[in-house]
Specification:
single chain; mainly alpha; 5 helices; 66% helix
């Protein structure tokens, strides 16, 4: 089907540029992924200082569940694997950076206690599990590349 010059003029100047909504949509998507990344970093910061509150590993396990849920819901909300990757990456980078910080007196932010290990290692497993569930469970389905008339 060919478009005549009269049809193009009737559609307006934005018709040739994809309706004029591509740039705004890309900016909104980038802002969403940046917000998810910052949310993962924020969870790491709060968790680093409050993982040992209450009974030994309870708070740490709650922080682990929170980063798992953030990854799954981020992928579900964006319908993209990047929605699960952004908070997981933010959490992992921030947590391991904060775990490596120590003062000249030997103080550390995440102790080698049961709660500290559950927060650090359990959170890493939970972040990756959220990424896996988000990618395979909630992301937009890919079309089948194997079938009649296709290679493979």
């Amino acid at each position: 089907m060919t478009v005549t010059s009269q049809q193009q003029a009737a559609a307006g100047p934005a018709a040739g540029r994809g309706g004029g909504r591509g740039t705004g949509s890309a900016v909104l998507a980038a802002a969403t992924y940046l917000a998810l990344l910052c949310f993962g970093v924020g969870q790491a910061l709060v968790g680093t200082f409050f993982y040992a509150v209450g009974p030994a590993p309870l708070a740490a396990l709650c922080f682990d569940a929170a980063i798992f849920g953030t990854g799954v819901l981020g992928a579900w909300g964006t319908r993209s694997p990047l929605g699960a990757l952004a908070p997981a990456a933010g959490w992992l980078v921030a947590t391991f950076a904060l775990a490596s910080v120590s003062t000249h007196q030997g103080s550390v932010l995440i102790e080698a206690s049961a709660a500290g290990e559950w927060f650090l290692f359990g959170g890493a497993v939970a972040a990756m599990a959220g990424l896996i569930v988000g990618v395979f469970g909630w992301s937009r389905p890919r079309r089948n590349l194997i079938g009649p008339g296709r290679l493979g």
